[in-house]
Specification:
Elements lengths: L1 E4 L2 E2 L10 H14 L2 E8 L2 E3 L4 H4 L9 E8 H25 L5 H18 L16 H4 L6 H26 L1 H27 L3 H27 L8 H24 L2 H17 L13
Parallel strand pairs: 1-5
Antiparallel strand pairs: 1-2, 3-4, 3-5
Length: 295
């Protein structure tokens, strides 16, 4: 049996594997260690959707003469998946808007996969069981065109999902621009953070928590963008080493802040935000192009 990766023969040792699924799992783990992901699968010149595991996992290995996979760097594979998810949403929206029941059956079959990928990329969309219930409609799930009222509700969901997908997709397409925007937003958040203790003391917990959640989202986004900028072809204008130092320095303060919120210690929260977190956020502008200086 021959194994090809990106059309190149691979010297890959097999042990006691008896099914194609076992081989692909081993191959995927090996590629993942090199930060690559399998994006397509051909077996004996037949193409299979890599995510449709039920279609190929149980194929007996003794019937396989050739396995050919395409693999992309993880960041490129993630980018391609986000684009594919957005395209799926666009197709589903078009079918609902035009009342075209032709593609509904095929789109319904892909819905569980789409939900699973959305849960992986956007855990905040998932319920306590880790599932995303987007486009949850019995008719649609059965491959039947929903009635107009139900279709309108689904279309509203699709619009929200596409906004999220396209926002994340921009991170892969323009990582340095998105990182600069996020750093600027973090620096601007310093003023809002200082107001949080007063908001907590006066009972305005909702506004205070919105500020903290926004801070967490921006920090998460920054750390997601750093490796994408580092992987880009050109030398970044942003001080990436400085961004990494900032992340290392602020992590202990965020841990203390979490503990302070759990203890409902508004004095400690205020001290941490005013004297530890906010000053570090203010210095972020120095890491941006044409600002100069060190963090």
């Amino acid at each position: 049996m021959e194994i090809l990766v990106n059309r190149e023969p691979l010297d890959f040792s097999l042990e006691n594997e008896s099914s194609l699924g076992e081989v692909i799992d081993e191959l995927a783990d090996w590629l993942r260690s090199g930060r690559f992901a399998i994006t397509s699968l051909d077996v004996n010149d037949r193409t299979y959707a890599i995510h449709d595991r039920d279609a190929w996992a149980d194929i007996a290995l003794h019937t396989v003469r050739e396995i050919s996979v395409e693999a992309l760097p993880l960041s490129e594979a993630d980018h391609a998946t986000l684009i594919a998810l957005d395209e799926y949403c666009a197709l589903l929206a078009h079918a609902l808007e035009t009342r075209n029941d032709g593609p509904i059956g095929e789109l319904a079959e892909e819905l569980p996969y789409v939900r699973g990928r959305l849960a992986g990329y956007f855990p905040s969309l998932a319920d306590e069981n880790g599932r995303v219930a987007v486009c949850s409609n019995r008719e649609l799930e059965s491959g039947i065109l929903p009635d107009p009222e139900a279709a309108e509700a689904i279309l509203a969901e699709i619009t929200d999902i596409r906004t999220i997908l396209q926002t994340r997709e921009r991170e892969y397409r323009e990582p340095e621009r998105e990182l600069a925007l996020s750093l600027g937003q973090l620096a601007a958040a310093a003023v809002q953070l200082i107001e949080v203790p007063v908001q907590l003391q006066t009972g305005d917990e909702t506004t205070a928590m919105q500020t903290i959640v926004r801070l967490t989202e921006l920090l998460t986004r920054v750390m997601r963008l750093v490796p994408l900028v580092e992987a880009s072809a050109r030398e970044p204008a942003i001080d990436i080493a400085g961004v990494r130092r900032f992340a290392e320095e602020i992590t202990p303060q965020l841990s203390e802040l979490k503990d302070a919120f759990e203890m409902q210690d508004s004095v400690l929260i205020g001290d941490l935000l005013e004297y530890e977190v906010a000053p570090r956020l203010e210095k972020l502008e120095r890491l941006l192009p044409d600002q100069g200086g060190d963090a």
